[in-house]
Amino acid sequence: MRITLLPFALCTLLFAFSLSVMAQGVYPQNSRQGAPPAESKPRILKEVGIDQRLGEQLPLDLTFRDENGDAVRLGDYFKDKPVVLSLVYYECPMLCHEVLTGLTRSFEQLSFSVGQEFEVVTVSFDARETPAMAVKQKDSYLNWYDRAGASEGWHFLTGDQQAIDRLTEAVGFKYAYDEETKQFAHASGIMVLTRGGKLARYFYGVEYQPKDLRLGLVEASENRIGSAVDQILLYCYHYDPTTGKYGPVVMNIMRLAGVATLLAIVAMFIVMRRRNIARLREQAGGTI
């Protein structure tokens, strides 16, 4: 019975934790409350952002170059696994490094492994960058991640401007080049796609909760990966496109809590009945 009730208890505990976090104001970090008015932003920042294209198809015919300098089709990485896509540029002085660092930290905490349960595709949106820069980045993050098979599952690509434009437009990634600083202004986030190349989930910022990423991968895989506990958590938590996070579904959790309570009552009744029968047998000298 402990095994049966464990997922329900886990779901309930996670819900309680979520309520605690929301009460502290952590969950609404993507809220615009307190943000400066749009008109006060520098002009270039008005041109950057991420527009969600949930459910839309990626152009898998696009051609890039991998870290070895070989021409590859984007579709080569969409076969039988979900894909995590990150858009960065390799000579970015800060933000792109933070995105890849946050992604690697999240990967470290997942039981799923890059190259086994899912693929990762990192694409530079700077057409001037080269495979030599890509391989340097790949070596750096794979040395940190240090799991078998990851080298075949995490791909660092470069491409020409036409391919980059088509890809960034397809996923809603908007960026701009600042002539004054000689750097790109861009938003930070990652996308999870189905094995067929459809956009399934967006996660924003530079830190990606392992729970959110895991559930996103399970859903994008059409339940081909994950466990029974993941299925229960997906019943308890639904993806919210406005925040890019998985939030608790109160009604579903209440239903599961009701079922868990009923099972606990039945279990208690069975245990008490067995104890009563055993006691009566002892009193009757084993004749009952």
Explained architecture:
By secondary structure, the protein is an alpha+beta fold. 42% of the residues lie in helices and 18% in strands. It contains 8 helices and 12 strands. It has helices at residues 2-23, 95-109, 131-145, 150-153, 161-171, 210-220, 228-236, 250-283, and strands at 49-50, 63-65, 71-73, 83-88, 119-124, 154-157, 173-178, 183-186, 189-193, 199-204, 237-240, 245-248. It has a 5-stranded mixed sheet, sandwiched between helices. It has a 3-stranded antiparallel sheet with strand order 1-7-8. Helix 2 (95-109) links the parallel strand 4 (83-88) and strand 5. Helix 1 packs parallel to helix 7 (228-236) and helix 1 packs antiparallel against helix 8 (250-283). Mean pLDDT is 81; it is low at 1-36.
Provide the descriptors you would attach to this structure in a database record.
288 residues, alpha+beta, 5-stranded mixed beta sheet, 12 strands, elongated
Quick summary:
With 288 residues, this protein is α+β, with helices and mostly antiparallel strands. The protein is built from eight helices and twelve strands.
List strands and helices in order, with pairings:
Blueprint: H1 2-23, E1 49-50, E2 63-65, E3 71-73, E4 83-88, H2 95-109, E5 119-124, H3 131-145, H4 150-153, E6 154-157, H5 161-171, E7 173-178, E8 183-186, E9 189-193, E10 199-204, H6 210-220, H7 228-236, E11 237-240, E12 245-248, H8 250-283
Parallel strand pairs: 4-5, 5-6
Antiparallel strand pairs: 1-7, 2-3, 4-9, 7-8, 9-10, 11-12
Helix pairs in contact: 1-7, 1-8
